[in-house]
Amino acid sequence: MRQDRQDRYVTFRNIDCEGMTRTVMAHVLRHVAAGDSPFWPYFEEQRALAHGRGFDDLRVLHNFLPTLKELLDDLGDEETLALLEELETQCM
C-alpha cells in the first residue's frame, strides 16, 4: 500500500478532516447568518452547548447530519451539500 493513499478504513492519516469541517461549517454559517430557516437559531444554540462540553464542529455536524442534508437540499445549496457528503464519507 502506498504511504500517501487515503484509506479511512485503515487510518484517517492524509485526510484533512479538520480543514473539511471548517469549510463545511463556514458554508453552513452563511445560512445561519442569512436566517433562511427557523432551524438555525436552534443549531447555533446546540453548537454552543456542544462546544461547552468539549465537542468539536465535526461532532456537531455529525449530530445534525440528516437535518442539514434535508435543509441544504431544500435551500438548493448543492455545493454545501456535496461538501457535507464528502465530509461524511471521509471523516465520520
UniProtKB/TrEMBL annotation:
Entry superkingdom: Bacteria
InterPro entries in the cross-refs: CowN (IPR024899)
Keyword line: Nitrogen fixation
Family: Belongs to the CowN family.
Function: Is required to sustain N(2)-dependent growth in the presence of low levels of carbon monoxide (CO). Probably acts by protecting the N(2) fixation ability of the nitrogenase complex, which is inactivated in the presence of CO.
Name of the protein in its database record: N(2)-fixation sustaining protein CowN
Lineage start: Bacteria, Pseudomonadati, Pseudomonadota, Alphaproteobacteria, Hyphomicrobiales
